[in-house]
Amino acid sequence: MLYVGIFLLFSLFFFANLQVVILSLMIAIFLLSLGIVNLKGVLPVPFYGGLMKYECGYTEINSYIIFYTMQFFMVALSFLLFDMEIILMLPFLYVNYFSFVSAGLAVLFLGLLMLGLLYEVFLNVFSV
């Protein structure tokens, strides 16, 4: 509710028309309630049935816990970082005027990425 109050003060400051303020407040409350309703389906519901014994007294043989190694997590994390470098380099393709400063920044950025790659190779992250 604090956000709604801040939104109301913000809209009163920028909009002098009361109808616009009330309409924007109604939209904010609607979007807030829509987010809470959608969050209800996202939150996990605990299910303890798989961890209990069967009626005959035997426990379950297989576990539902999925184990992963830190090695695969590091490979996925490094893939994410080096995938983001492509997105960060895209603005250099659309620049009409390419000065020495922007070229130096691009070389510095690629140099930092290469240092990060060499550090990951030094830590044997990619030896899966």
TrEMBL record:
Keywords: Electron transport, Membrane, Mitochondrion, NAD, Respiratory chain, Translocase, Transmembrane, Transmembrane helix, Transport, Ubiquinone. It comes from Aplidium conicum (Conical sea squirt). Belongs to the complex I subunit 3 family. It catalyses: a ubiquinone + NADH + 5 H(+)(in) = a ubiquinol + NAD(+) + 4 H(+)(out). It is found in: Membrane; Mitochondrion membrane. The keyword Transport applies. Core subunit of the mitochondrial membrane respiratory chain NADH dehydrogenase (Complex I) which catalyzes electron transfer from NADH through the respiratory chain, using ubiquinone as an electron acceptor. Essential for the catalytic activity of complex I. This is NADH-ubiquinone oxidoreductase chain 3. GO terms for molecular function: NADH dehydrogenase (ubiquinone) activity. The chain crosses the membrane at residues 7-37, 61-82, 94-119. One of its GO terms (cellular component) is mitochondrial membrane. Its EC number is 7.1.1.2. It is a multi-pass membrane protein.
